[in-house]
């Protein structure tokens, strides 16, 4: 068991959110000494350490209490929250702050040649996605009888492979969709990077560390806005 006299924040080790997350923390006055395996960064200026992980692992690390906070896309957090809800588990996370970077949307995209008359066009079709819980919830809300086909990556090529007729994936510029002859027809979730924490507040010195961190982050975020 680790002691709870230091705060531990999980961030993406390498990917779209890594540099902006490290940048934000640096601007909030945090400095770190990196371990040799580059998985852990020891906080030098404050008792706040970093764990460098895959973004998909961040909600679980918070739920298990391995980390106290995490910088993660709302898309990842919402998918894992929806998965917990579908399994009848308690709410484990809350969004502590929206961070203003990593903006994208989770959208349904269909082949360019489809005539789009509305969501009913999806009835009886298969939709490839890495976000089955968010997609299934949306399909239910919209009253669409479509099947979610789960793929962990390269979702955009699924229609060409005949695995599904359409996709539900992250979009920012739309260039990937265009390159795969797909068009966006519905937005399921607007997303940006967030600072996420556990649903329950900290009951030890981590509460003070977290509120100090938030004061500093708010200072940085208000300058940026
Ligand atoms: P990891 O190895 O950590 O699992 P990854 O491949 O899942 O990495 P990235 O592609 O680096 O993750 O994306 C991280 C996050 O960046 C996404 O979950 C999303 O919140 C955000 N993002 C912003 N724009 C896009 C985009 N166009 N495509 C994918 N993700 C985007
Ligand atoms: Zn990932």
Automatic annotation (TrEMBL):
Pathway: Amino-acid biosynthesis; L-histidine biosynthesis; L-histidine from 5-phospho-alpha-D-ribose 1-diphosphate: step 1/9. Its main location: cytoplasm. GO terms for biological process: L-histidine biosynthetic process. Residues 54-217 form the ATP phosphoribosyltransferase catalytic domain. It is found in: Cytoplasm. One of its GO terms (molecular function) is ATP phosphoribosyltransferase activity. The keyword Cytoplasm applies. Catalyzes the condensation of ATP and 5-phosphoribose 1-diphosphate to form N'-(5'-phosphoribosyl)-ATP (PR-ATP). Has a crucial role in the pathway because the rate of histidine biosynthesis seems to be controlled primarily by regulation of HisG enzymatic activity. This is ATP phosphoribosyltransferase. The lineage of its organism: Bacteria, Pseudomonadati, Pseudomonadota, Gammaproteobacteria, Lysobacterales. The gene is hisG. The chain holds residues 1 to 225 of 299 of the full protein.
């Amino acid at each position: 068991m680790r002691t709870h006299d230091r705060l531990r924040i999980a961030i993406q080790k390498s990917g779209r959110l890594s540099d902006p997350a490290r940048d934000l923390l640096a601007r909030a006055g945090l400095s770190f000494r990196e371990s040799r395996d580059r998985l852990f960064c020891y906080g030098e200026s404050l008792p706040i350490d970093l764990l460098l992980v895959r973004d998909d692992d961040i909600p679980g690390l918070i739920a298990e209490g391995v980390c106290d906070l995490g910088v993660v896309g709302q898309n990842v957090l919402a998918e894992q929250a929806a998965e917990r809800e579908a399994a009848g588990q308690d709410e484990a996370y809350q969004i502590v702050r929206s961070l203003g970077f990593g903006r994208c949307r989770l959208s349904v995209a269909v082949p360019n040649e489809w005539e789009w008359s509305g969501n009913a066009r999806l009835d009886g079709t298969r939709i490839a996605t890495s976000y089955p819980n968010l997609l299934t919830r949306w399909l239910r809300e919209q009253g669409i009888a479509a099947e979610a086909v789960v793929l962990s990556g390269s979702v955009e090529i699924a229609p060409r492979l005949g695995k599904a007729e359409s996709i539900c994936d992250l979009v920012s510029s739309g260039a990937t969709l265009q390159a795969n002859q797909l068009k966006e027809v519905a937005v399921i979730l607007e997303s940006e990077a967030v600072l996420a924490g556990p649903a329950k507040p900290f009951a030890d010195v981590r509460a003070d560390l977290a509120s100090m961190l938030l004061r500093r982050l708010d200072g940085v975020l208000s300058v940026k806005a």
